[in-house]
Every structure is written in structure tokens, then in C-alpha cells.
Design a protein that fits this description.
Two copies of one chain form a homodimer. By secondary structure, the first copy, chain A, is mostly helical. Chain A is 61% helix and 3% strand. Chain A contains six helices and two strands; from the N terminus they run ααββαααα. The first copy, chain A, has helices at 4-11, 15-23, 42-56, 61-72, 79-113, 125-132, and strands spanning 31-32, 38-39. In chain A, strands 1-2 form a two-stranded antiparallel sheet. Chain A is elongated and about 70 Å long. Chains A and B meet through helix 3, helix 4, helix 5 and helix 6 of A and helix 3, helix 4, helix 5 and helix 6 of B. The first copy, chain A, binds a DNA duplex through helix 2.
Chain lengths: 142, 142
DNA sequence: GTTGACCTTCGAGTTAACTCTAAGTTTATA
DNA sequence: TATAAACTTAGAGTTAACTCGAAGGTCAAC
């Protein structure tokens, strides 16, 4: 059984974040000492690792809640439920990637166009480009 | 001179957002009617277009504040100041892109590994992969 | 037996950029 | 003239995921 700081060291989450996740139903300590200290079993640790992996993969805390409920009762859920969530997240990631790639192209072009020197900015081509409204990117809807 | 809804239509910003930007010193109405209605001159419109372009390009409102102060007094600022801001933003965008690309790769691999069918999730390879903690991505510092 | 590290809860604060509401005024239209 | 659309301000609410602080209890070591 691990104490919270040990679980923190193991997962890379902070103790604060572990308690925060607990409040949101993502992680739990199956035991408490008489004085209230949290103690984490092997199963608790695995669950925490799952949460951390899912977080690293980009899933929201809400997504993770759903994934955990599937993980807890695999018999009652299909693979398709899992791939649906995963595909949806991939779609979001791709959408955001497209936006950021457009921004990158724009920023690179701006940098190429400007001398970047110590001259004063009277004819700075970056300022001019932004003035012209030439830039057209759409921000994410979510 | 345009009214706020006309400026909104022209820039694609909402009237709410225009007032919000005004509160933050990014946009201003150089005139007010006796009853307090905002009226935007050509110069005001250009400034609003600048703000919108910069926003589309990914600059934060704080960045835009700095860019506007340069734009307002180009003589006292160098091109380098402008490219510094732009380069910094490009660095941020690239960093976020790298994170998202890692997420994308992970999500794609997860999807490839799972049947996605109506079978129950007892042996779902996505759940298993997340359980294994196999996924390793670092979230952004900012 | 005391010091210091670690633990507890509860609740507030942070960040960024909006977004909305309410209550009231002004203007344009039919 | 009546009504609807558009405008005003001030301030609160939203979102996501933490992050921090205060006030105090617990535990291990020396």
C-alpha cells in the first residue's frame, strides 16, 4: 500500500492533483488509515496509471471518466464504444493541428518577409501584413 | 463612421467581443454620439482589422497590445522587436504542434490496434494499452 | 518529547478569452 | 405613435484543469 506522495512519485502526478482527481471520481484510495491517510492498493495504482496514460494521450477528464467506467465493467461495453471516444478525440486533435499548421505557415511567412533588424519599424512588413488583414485562419469552435 | 454592429459585421467579431477588446485597450471608438453610441472611423476600423488578423495568427491579447503600441509609434520601435514577438509565438506553436502530433500518433495506433466492433470490451486493446501506461507524452508547460 | 516532514479538509484563486445577463436608453421603421 | 431593433453599462458566469493556501492533525526519527 502506497501513501499519496508515493503514488505521486510513481505516476508523476502531484498529491494535489491526485486529490483533485479523486474529487472527480477518477482515482480512489481503497483504504484509509484511522487518522484519514489515503492508502493505495495495487489496483488503485493501476487505475491511477490508466488515468495518467489517458491524460497524456489527450483525453479530457470527462472522457477518462467514461473510459474508466468501461474498464470497470468491460463485459457490459463494446470495443466500439471505446473506439468512438478515441476517434472523436483524434478528430479534435486533427482539427486543432490543422489550425496550428495554418498559424505556423502564417508566422513563418511573416518572419521571412521582415528584415528583423535594428531599423525602426516604419516599414515593417509584419505590421503591414497584419494591417492588410491578409491573414485568414479560423479559430477552433470548441 | 460605423456603428458597433457594422464593425462587427465587417470584422467578424461580435459586438460583445469588440467592447471586451476595448476594455482591454485593443480597439477604440474615436467618437461617441451624444447618447453614448460608439462610432468607428476608418482608422478605428483598420486597427480592429489589425487586431483580428493578429488574433487569427495566434497572438494573445497581450501580444497584440504590444504589437499595437509598436504600430502606433513605429519610429520608436525596431523590426527586431516585432520579429522577436513573432518568433516567440512560432516557437510556442511548434511546441504545441509537436505535442499534438504525438497524441495523434498515439491515438492512431490505439485505433489500429482495436477491432472497434460490437464485441464486449473484455480484451479491448485500447483499454489494455492505457492500462499498461505504454503511452508517454508530455503536456505543455504553459 | 520535540522537531520537521507529511498528511488532512475546505475553499478560493488562476488563466485566457470570451460570453451572457439585466436593466435601462436610443433610434429606426411602419 | 408604437414597437422592435440596436445600443449602453456593470458585473457575473463559463470552461478546463489544475494550483495554492490556511489551519490543523499525524508520524518517524533523534
Amino acid at each position: 500500500m502506497l501513501k499519496i506522495s508515493e503514488l505521486a512519485a510513481l505516476t508523476g502526478l502531484s498529491a494535489h492533483t491526485i486529490r483533485f482527481y479523486e474529487k472527480h471520481g477518477l482515482i480512489e484510495a481503497s483504504q484509509r488509515s484511522g487518522s484519514g491517510y489515503r492508502y493505495y492498493s495495487d489496483a488503485d495504482v493501476k487505475r491511477a496509471v490508466f488515468v495518467k496514460s489517458a491524460r497524456n494521450t489527450g483525453f479530457s477528464l470527462d472522457d477518462i471518466g467514461v473510459l474508466l467506467s468501461i474498464r470497470l465493467d468491460k463485459q457490459s461495453h463494446s470495443c466500439q464504444e471505446v473506439t468512438d471516444i478515441t476517434q472523436h478525440k483524434l478528430d479534435e486533435v486533427n482539427e486543432r493541428l490543422a489550425e496550428l499548421q495554418t498559424m505556423r505557415r502564417t508566422l513563418e511567412r511573416l518572419l521571412e518577409s521582415c528584415c528583423g533588424g535594428p531599423e525602426n519599424a516604419t516599414h515593417c512588413s509584419i505590421i503591414e501584413a497584419l494591417d492588410g488583414g491578409a491573414v485568414t485562419v479560423t479559430r477552433r469552435a470548441s
